Give the backbone structure.
Amino acid sequence: MNELIRTENLTKEFETRKGFTGITKIKALDNVNISLYPNEIVGIVGASGSGKSTLAKILVFLYKSTSGKIYFKDEDITKIHGKSLKKYRKEIQMVFQDPYASLDPYHSIEWHIKRPLLISHYSGNIDDRIDELMNMVKLTPPESYKNKFPHQVSGGQRQRVYIARVLALNPQILIADEPVSMLDVSLRIDVLDLLLKIKNELGIGIIYITHDLNTVSMVTDRIYVLHNGEVVEDGHTNTILTSPQDGYTKALIEAASDPYKRI
Ligand code: ADP
Ligand code: MG
């Protein structure tokens, strides 16, 4: 099976002004090569500042890369715009860290899931589709959640609402950037289980971004370890977690087993 998405030497430099000394360049991504197949969850793992969110934002066209290429199903989409970009943007959806910030406090849960269906001129029965999506993300029974507002449900449930909202567009790829790091520990497993359910039932490709190695073994098939914008190691999750080759990966694994160690 072919890749859903693949990057080739993706590089991103940011220019930042530092006091009076002028402009400093930060290489947030340095020749990054990753791939994602249908029906798999790939982890992007690294400490804060390693470039994880930058990579995600480039893949959803919120940032422009400095150099390198992006292929979607073997087609070079690095420079697409207009209609093609609009089409691609439907295929790749992103779930963010803060489920509260991504929902509108003045609108009901039903509104959040209905809106993308209306905007994309969904051709089937909208009410049935809303129920289907709510069942998919386990907001059940749907009737008991539809009229609630974001502040009336838990953080984990808010994250589910947002996931239902982006799944409404039938994307082929889902990028989840630290989707559970702001949730209580007791709610994390549920959302991670949901990612697995979505992969299994919809067969889409999911990129799971995290600084927390403890969660990657639960959901990912393969991982890429990012360090200062570079992929230092990649491969099957179990292989890497049980026999890491790179020193940085080893330090990450050690830190994950010791909550007080900082790297
Ligand atoms: P992560 O998500 O792994 O914590 P980021 O991708 O957010 O890392 O950041 C990678 C590096 O790029 C950091 O050094 C960060 O300060 C820098 N960076 C990210 N976004 C911007 C931006 N918009 N402008 C300038 N520098 C940025
Ligand atoms: Mg980040």
Notes: The radius of gyration is 19 Å. The first strand starts at residue 5 and ends at 18. Residues 52-53 surround magnesium ion (ligand 2) (CB under 6 Å). The chain has one domain: 36-65+92-257.
